[in-house]
Amino acid sequence: MTVERIEDRAPSSRWERFAAALDERLGLSALRYPVPRHANSLAWTLGGLTLTSLLILIATGILLAQFYTPTPEAARESVLHIETQLQLGSFLRGIHIWAAQAMFVLAFAHLARVLITGSYKRPREANWLVGLGLLAMTYLLLFTGSTLRWDQEAFEAVEHNTGLASLAGGLGTWFTAEFGAGTPLVTRLYLAHVSFLPALVFGLLVIHFAWIKYHGISARPEVPVGAPDPDETVPFTSHARHLVGWSLILLAILMGLAATTVNPVGAAPVEGIEVTKPLWPFFWVYQIENWMGIRGLFWAPIVVFVALAALPFLDRGPERRPLRRRWVMVSALVLFGAWSVLTVMVALSGPVAHLG
Ligand code: HEM
Question: Is residue 163 situated within a structural domain?
Fold first, then answer.
């Protein structure tokens, strides 16, 4: 496969001459990577769309941060101010909340595509692990974000957080109110949400993309590991245009949802009661906690992440076609089925008190 470079052909239009001049100075074509024709489909664009949701989150998050106060006394009031007093504040917050859920769904759908097409196999095992790191960060961003409005649901989430911290021993100290006595927990969760979690995501993304460029996009699943990709390469700009098109559709959907739905802000928190459920991506562990207590909440995500991390090291053959990798597909379906059933169970039932 060859990478199309701007300087490979004589620029004809004014725009191409401008792009060539810019490239000569900034070396932007060095960022391009070969895109096989089959990657110009929605399934192979899900990673790019996950990135689009992240960019929307950063843009709306920066704007929201101008009006948010990260202290236990003022956090909920400042969210109510954004909702009711700030022009377009509710719309902006709505886009942020929906984009967070879109990022979660898209990252999962992207993981499913990589899993079904066996694209985690040699030489991409390490990039699969980096992807799992990104998924873990997405969960932590969702969690920290959902605590910031400091209503009853946020307060209960933080109480679970503190319960988890005690199970993690010394490692959990950071999550307790006692750590950094002068800085309240909600302020530290806010700091995590806007500084070091995004910084970790950025670092992981740099590695993810560097390895995508280094390995190239995987061939169709019909092509075994190690065989050359027979598919022709499309210009990177055609793939970029395809991604921009889908990104605009995603943005339109998020704006539509933000304009037509009501954003959550619950009652001011009351200590000692448990009357709420978490955000839906956490429903599956909530149900496990219903059965097994806080230990289930601690161990279940670890077990699932370790199982996913082990996949490229267990499924090592050259075969990439899904129907020829039956045990992988059956295990993935069982895992996804269990996740869906647990999620629906919590959606259909009321809140349960866990912390007693
Ligand atoms: C913030 C989250 C993520 C972003 C922004 C992201 C972005 C991308 C992009 C743009 C690609 C190029 C191909 C495509 O779009 O399908 C890609 C490929 C890849 N991603 Fe991700 N990704 C993320 C999360 C994940 C997760 C959760 C996994 C799996 C655990 C993963 C594993 C991989 C692998 C193995 C490839 C190479 C696939 C191939 O060559 O076909 N990524 N990623």
Answer: yes
Residue to probe by mutation, ligand 1, list 108, 200, 212, 223, most atoms within 8 Å of CB: 212
| Domain of 191, in residue numbers | 36-276
Lowest average pLDDT, out of 7-21, 106-120, 142-156, 211-225, goes to 7-21
Q: Is there a domain that residue 52 lies in?
A: yes
State which of 37, 58, 110, 135 you would mutate to test the pocket of ligand 1, scoring each by most atoms of that ligand within 8 A of its C-beta.
110
267 CB-near residues (< 8 Å, 6+ apart) = 151, 152
**Which pLDDT tens digit goes with each residue over 157-186?**
998 888 888 888 776 777 777 777 788 989
Q: Which of 106, 104, 197, 102 is nearest to 148 (CA)?
A: 197
Which ligand 1 atom minimizes the distance to the CA of 216? 40
What is the reported pTM? 0.93
The binding-site residues of ligand 1, defined as CB within 6 angstroms of any ligand atom, are: 44-48, 50-51, 54, 107, 110-111, 114, 119-120, 124, 127-128, 131-132, 134-135, 138, 208, 212, 217-218
Of 72, 76, 70, give the one whose Cα is nearest residue 267: 76
Is residue 7 included in any domain, yes or no?
no
Q: How remote is the CA of residue 130 from the centroid of ligand 1, in Å?
A: 9
Instruction: Please tell me the total count of domains within the chain.
Output: 1
pLDDT, tens digit (0-9, with 9 covering 90-100), for 300-338: 999 999 999 999 999 999 999 999 999 999 999 999 999
Domain with 139 in it: what CATH number? Answer: 1.20.810.10
Find, among 266, 111, 248, 269, the residue nearest to 184 by Cα: 269
* Best CA proximity match to 353, nearest among 299, 305, 290: 290
End-to-end CA distance of the chain: 61
340, part of any domain: no
Q: Are 233 and 35 in contact (CB under 8 A)?
A: yes
pLDDT value at residue 279: 96
Tokens of 52: 């689009």
pLDDT for 7: 45
